Amino acid sequence: MNLYYYTNVETMRCILQNANIYATNLRYMNDAEEYANGVKELREIFNERKRRELITEDMLQGVLENEVTSYSISFSEAGDLLSQWSMYAGESGVSLRMRFTGTERYKAYPDNGEAKAQEREELPDSEERLQVRKVYYCTKSAMKKSEYKAAADEIWKAATGTPGSEEEGGQSEGQADIDDEYPALWKRMAPFVKRVEFRAEAEQRLVFNTAEWEKTFRIDYRNSRNALKPYLDIECKDGWPIYEVMVGPGFNQEVVYQSILHFLNHAKLKVPALDGKQYCERCEEYFQNCGNMPEELRNIWNEFVPYFDKDTADYYRLFLTIRNDMLKHSAADKSFGEQLRRRELTKTGIILSRSRIPYIF
Rounded to an integer, what distance in angstroms lies between the CA atom of residue 77 and that of residue 136? Predict the structure, then answer.
């Protein structure tokens, strides 16, 4: 699953060198109705589908008035979206393409009574909930009836595994119909239902609910426009699965691009290590991203592929040799050669590219 994390260059540096991202408390996100929209819309969907008041008004008010214990890291399915650049990355910021496999494990600082814990500990993965999950966009008052019904059906199916029309009521065959389970499911699903006006973000989320953990982990605070926003300092064990860094639009895009290229090739990074086969696959995708490879250049690539099977090979130097041989060939003077010059493959296998959006902030 390819997802994108938009941010500034300094935050990118911290992510690549320390393998950590801040998960922000849902009550302090950019959406002023974050979490509240989810619990309200889900309450109506649940009650309509079950044809009774499973989630009462008192339960709703209790959730809205209590402290929010969920923390979120947001990703987008869109890798080069102007609204995301403007809101989260700014002038020549970056989009980090990550390729999640579902095997990632996460760590945070334990709250052991000391001022600052030195080592993060792995977080509990109860019922395999620590997975990146799709966000659904649903606000009944802002949607057409048919549009709302489709969204509500999709949410109901995602929450319960049951096909989604109101008329069907009940559960699918073999699934227990225990009403007591729905309030917990309702609160657990709430972080993944946002106002419909945000749907262009195509968001997916990694959500951490501290109320579900037996052990206490440290909550830190950061100043954002004079608001002290609570967050969890989350480390991805073995490094975040960063596949590509794209430099966003801006007047200084080229300078930023060259500085990040130097950083990726020379700084000590904490990212998943690639063996020869994996680096070869990354090279192949790099070339595929450059367009249709002329047959003469494909012959060069095929000639070098067997060398990636050698454990002692310097895979990055091998790639540079292949790329330079291609650029020297007359077949590279066309569009494929131009695309070779527009992006780079770095030592760690991270691809570096530029946004195509011709926009100056």
Answer: 13
Condensed to tens digits (0 to 9), the pLDDT of residues 129-152 reads 689 999 999 999 999 999 999 999
> Could you tell me which of 230, 216, 207 has the C-alpha nearest to residue 67?
230
Place of tokens 């000391």: 114
Determine the Cα–Cα distance for residues 353 and 186; give it in Å rounded to an integer: 41
**Other C-beta atoms within 10 Å of 123: how many?**
21
- CB proximity list for 208: less than 8 A, separation 6 or greater: 23, 70, 71, 72, 106, 108, 123, 130, 232, 234
Cα 189 to Cα 232: distance, rounded to the nearest angstrom: 20
pTM listed for this prediction: 0.90
Q: 193-194 and 20-25: which strand pairing?
A: unpaired
3-state secondary structure 142-167: HCCHHHHHHHHHHHHHHHHCCCCCHH
Tokens standing for residue 50: 């079950």
Per the document, the length of the chain is 361
Unique residue bearing structure tokens 């590509």 = 244
Place of tokens 């029309």: 165
Q: Which amino acid is at 92?
A: S
**CB-based contact 99:2 (threshold 8 Å):** yes
Tokens encoding 32 = 């002023």
The tokens for 314 are 């310097």
Under DSSP, is residue 358 helix (H, G, I), strand (E, B) or coil? Answer: coil
* Euclidean distance between CA atoms 218 and 202, whole angstroms: 30
